[in-house]
Amino acid sequence: MNPRPLKMRLSLDVLRHLGLNLYSNVPAVLSEIVANAWDADAERVRVELDKANDRIVLEDDGSGMTRDEVIDRFLLVGYQRRSRQPGPTPKGRSPMGRKGIGKLSLFSIANEVVVETVGNGQKTALRMHLDTMRKAIEDNRDEYEPEELPAPEVDFDHGTRITLRELRKRQTISTAEGLRKRLARRFSIIGPSHGFEITVNSARIGPGDRGYHDRLQYIWTYGNQTSLTSLCGNLDKHEEREPRFPVSGGPALIVDGWLGTVRESGQLRDEHGENLNRIAIFVRGKMAQEDLLSDFTERGIYASYLIGELRVDGLDTASGAELDHDEDAATSSRQRIVEDDPRYVALKEFVRGELKFLQGRWSEWRIDAGTRTAMEIPEIKDWIESLPKQFSGKAKRWLGKINRINVGDISERRQLVKHAVLAFEFYRWNENLDSLDAIGDENLEAAIRMFRELDGLEATLYGQIVRQRIAVIRALQEKVDRNAKEKAIQDYIFDHLWLLDPSWERVEASEVMEKRVGSLFADVGAGLSDEEKLARLDIKYRKTAGKHVIIELKRPERTVSVYDLAKQIQKYRSGMLKILDNAGTPHEPVEFVCLLGKAPTEWDGPDGKRTVEDVLGVHNARYVNYDELLENSFLAYSDYLQRARIVDRLGEVIDAIDDYTEG
Fold it and tell me: Other CB atoms closer than 10 Å to residue 359's CB: what's the count?
């Protein structure tokens, strides 16, 4: 008796591993059927989502299959399409199918699969059910016989129709619109230019259905991508890159496609919840790996804005003469590339280098764009222009860097810019702007979170300004104590208008206006009596906070009547209004301040204070006493310092750290 010959046998249990759990979503499964239609030289594929009857129907007008082809190809798990049918299809297409297991994915989403096909005029129909298939597996059978259906009932002349019934997960049934997008994203050969049309519930799919081209801000292309860029209606920058890269021990590969970034990272999650923050790899027009980007762990902020599609047919070139020495780079699941394949290793190195280049370009372009956006705010533009020249460039770059951070809405962006300005001024004050320059993409968001959490940042910065003002007031007080009051008043009042009014922060210079008002002072002064000239110390003009301010100083020892003051002010007022009228700005406000060493003579009389205020108020004037000026200015800011000691503690801590470092 001859011994039993050695034979390899494949159990039906292979279906459990390769088929039932092959894919996890409807679009991936349907893509396998669409790929078969492409290989069958179909020109049209019709997809119908029939939720009412809990089914999905896919029908193509390709070459179909004869009965023998159904048995020898479709029902043969692991049928090697390219070894048994080498070369292109009759229409010259590069076949997508290879391992012969994609059809098993149908049972990932359906319990029942009905196949109807017509090839060379022969009609064949069959039904496969998951329960009977599992029963065959449990019985340790090596073969499974599907149920044959009446062939004459097939109602088309050529092609294949596959109906999926008893869908296993109702929630996986996408909307027609959602499925169109997902199929469009899984194939790069859809459209008239490829002679391949797909419809979902009668709506034709086109490249524009991918739904992300209008979101792209910057794009880098490989090969001719004219048709692609025409879809990018909001593109700011486009740069072409070298598509060829070397492979160790093999010929160089060519990449075709693009990498791009969107304006806001939130745009990379579509309305159906799909994450688009990925680099998809295509082979022969079909997605071979959904995401390559996740393989790279070193990623800056730019990576959260990144999306791309790269076609690398060299990863799957086993055909014809190359068959004997070229290995398929796809894994058994057909959803990834084999990680240690030399071609895949080379592709990753190529993409790694491109990402590094893109990061630099993205940072440069986004900083420029962010700066322009920030400068659209008039106050920001004024602030930058007010900075010393050595700081304005750094401020622009800092604002541009901050504007790369994605925020939810315009109010959050305003708050972000506010914190950025405060942070810049804080570090500038502490002569530590290099710290801001050192903040890179990897820690930019963390730095801004820190700034946002420092509620005392604005108060601390203001506290530093207040301390500076207190020093000015104290210096003025020292001059007064040394009986240098007149000179001190002249030196300080006109250089520090905030002593008279804390809101008068910034003097608006106008050489023409200064000259005109100076002439007015000379003309009015010429008409003063000797007594009035003796009482007068000086008179000055400033424009601040949108108003014209005229300040008349009287010698500290002189006492004047409020009515005499009013008479002089009226002369100035009439002349000033004439100047404004001639300048074409008759409605700009004019305010007068009378700075006196002693109160007007009427002050101590019955209801004197009110009399002085009413007489001066008619001319929009007010009286300020030297000593009250000093006392009130000091109290206003010292009160702030008293209330802000806790908040200002931050400044003390930073100072202490600097002192410790220096020691």
Answer: 18
